[in-house]
């Protein structure tokens, strides 16, 4: 910015006009503004340093990753026995079943005629009959021993044919157990092997025939196979 200095007298024609620059003679306002800027800058830097220090103190450190939970040993279900026999006493019950239909086996310890009784029900929960007495006397104690809600023993029933018979209906049973290192489960294979051997020597008078037994190898056959 260039300005003329005005005097009360008119300069002479040959007198030189004096020129001054604002940079050569800074005014008091410019100096004050510069000082204010410097102070603001120092205050900002101090504030940033204070915030950085507070963050380093209060910021939580990295949370350690949780260790993966140990995988629990899962017992493997295996097939042990296939039994062939008949449902007896069909004439005394109103339950209806069809060929190739699944049936349910349920213990009936309160039966006044036989505490080893095993009911045979259709999928609607209606009773069809009973497992033969001689067969139930061997199978019921095994069902009671492993009936603790852990699924260590599972018995499946299936009607292959003859669902319309009046007195007895053929039934096929599959018995599955678990095999792991737990002491109670480790007993299942041994107990089921013994059950199969005893059932092979059993004759069911009401069913008018022996129990057909098909036994798996010693440690059972994995269900996947």
Radius of gyration, in angstroms, nearest whole number:
48 Å
Strand content: 25-35%
The count of β-strands is 12
Overall spatial form = rod-shaped
What helical percentage do the residues reach? 25-40%
Overall mean confidence score, pLDDT: 77
Question: What is the N-to-C succession of helices and strands?
Answer: EEHEEEEHEEHEEEE
Structural class, please? alpha+beta
| Largest sheet report | 8 strands, antiparallel
Distance between the termini: 99 Å
Low-confidence segments: 13-25, 68-72, 181-185
Number of contiguous helices: 3
Task: Give the helices and strands, then pairings.
Blueprint (H helix, E strand, L loop, with lengths): L1 E3 L14 E3 L6 H31 L17 E13 L13 E6 L10 E4 L5 E4 L2 H14 L6 E6 L9 E12 L3 H18 L2 E2 L4 E2 L1 E4 L5 E2 L3
Antiparallel strand pairs: 1-2, 3-8, 3-11, 3-12, 4-5, 4-7, 5-6, 7-8, 9-10
């Amino acid at each position: 910015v260039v300005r003329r200095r005005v005097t009360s007298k008119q300069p002479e024609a040959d007198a030189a006009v004096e020129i001054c620059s604002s940079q050569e003679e800074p005014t008091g306002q410019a100096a004050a503004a510069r000082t204010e800027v410097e102070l603001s800058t120092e205050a900002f830097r101090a504030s940033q340093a204070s915030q950085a220090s507070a963050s380093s103190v209060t910021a939580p450190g990295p949370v350690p990753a949780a260790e993966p939970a140990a995988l629990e040993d899962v017992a493997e279900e295996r097939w042990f026995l296939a039994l062939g026999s008949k449902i007896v006493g069909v004439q005394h019950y109103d339950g209806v079943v069809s060929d190739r239909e699944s049936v349910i086996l349920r213990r009936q310890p309160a039966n006044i005629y036989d505490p080893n009784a095993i009911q045979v029900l259709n999928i609607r929960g209606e009773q069809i009959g009973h497992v033969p007495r001689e067969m139930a006397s061997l199978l019921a104690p095994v069902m009671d021993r492993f009936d603790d809600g852990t699924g260590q023993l599972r018995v499946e029933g299936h009607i292959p044919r003859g669902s319309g018979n009046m007195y007895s209906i053929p039934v096929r049973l599959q018995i599955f157990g678990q095999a792991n290192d737990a002491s109670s489960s480790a007993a299942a294979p041994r107990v089921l092997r013994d059950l199969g051997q005893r059932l092979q020597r059993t004759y069911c008078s009401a069913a008018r025939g022996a129990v057909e037994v098909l036994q798996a190898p010693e440690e059972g056959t994995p269900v996947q196979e």
